[in-house]
Amino acid sequence: MRFHPLDGEPRVVAVVTARMASKRYPGKAMVSLAGRPLIEVLLERIASVPVLDSVALATSSRPENEPLVEIAKKLGIPPFQGDEEDVLRRSLDCAHHMRADHVVRVTGDNPLTDLETIERLVTLHLSGRADYTYVPGDALLMGILSEVISVRALERSWERGDARHRSELMTLYIKEHPREFKIRTATLPEGLYRPEYRLTVDEPEDVALMQALFDRLASARRIVTTREALALLDREPALAALNRHLKHKPANLRSVSLDGGIVAAPRATRSARKPARAKGAPRARAKVAAGRRRK
């Protein structure tokens, strides 16, 4: 792990939340994608994004999650272990541990989280001094999105929210109270909005699709892109049929339903303040095991 002076710049850290427990598919973080665990594939992909200052794995402190911790360590990515059920608290504690000012939220069941979109969101978020930056609408249901959230907004969400705001849908408080935050919205890069496709991993059929995609696209130490996966689904529609019948999580549908109110809501007029940091605090840049950083 390399360290660099922060030079007063906001520190942006991707926090990948994952754990072994799952109601629908326990252990999905360790399913094999072209011979490698899903969480390893995802962490390596996120670590290749050049606009990030670091990447961390946020898992729970239960012993069953030790295999995830070991994979992160192997890649040179800091693991953080926190609360099992309170995902917001775990992510917030991880952000504090990493000395982050802003968090790129990535969920561990989305191995094809789009890297182009992360760069677009981070750039928009920092230039607009935002509290929360994301792509609204049903693109969320594709399973390729990330979100950028200021640590200050996460703190406010945890302090003012209740139990339902601290689950895996950790931006619910922000979406329900948009006037309390400075929110920026973005669109997907051209060609990536394909809501007919489902690229998240939540059910056995999702796993079957993801394994088929990586079997066809993966090669030694190469990053598979979201665009390549979409192009393959266009060429082989039988693959998309594997999970087309599945229903989306009610929490995600609830999140999408709130987006109309966010787009219409007046933006908070206050400027986002930079959280205080220690002078000379280090900037960590995530790297993979062999020290390579793909761009």
Structural overview:
There is one protein chain. With 295 residues, this protein is α/β, with parallel strands linked by helices. The chain has a single domain (11-266), classed as Spore Coat Polysaccharide Biosynthesis Protein SpsA, Chain A, CATH 3.90.550.10. The protein contains 11 helices and 11 strands. It has a 7-stranded mixed β-sheet with strand order 6-5-2-7-9-8-10, with helices on both faces. A two-stranded antiparallel sheet has the order 1-11. β5, α2 (66-75) and β6 (79-82) form a beta-alpha-beta unit. α1 runs parallel beside α2 (66-75) and α3 (87-97) runs antiparallel to α5. The longest helix has 14 residues, at 204-217. It is globular. Mean pLDDT is 86; it is low at 1-7 and 269-295.
List descriptors.
single chain, 295 residues, alpha/beta, Spore Coat Polysaccharide Biosynthesis Protein SpsA, Chain A, 7-stranded mixed β-sheet, two-stranded antiparallel ribbon, 11 strands, 34% helix, 15% strand, disordered N terminus, disordered C terminus
Set out the fold topology.
Elements: E1 2-5, E2 12-17, E3 32-33, E4 36-37, H1 38-47, E5 54-60, H2 66-75, E6 79-82, H3 87-97, E7 102-107, H4 115-127, E8 132-134, E9 147-150, H5 151-160, H6 172-176, E10 183-185, H7 204-217, H8 226-235, H9 237-240, H10 250-257, H11 259-264, E11 282-285
Parallel strand pairs: 2-5, 2-7, 5-6, 8-10
Antiparallel strand pairs: 1-11, 3-4, 7-9, 8-9
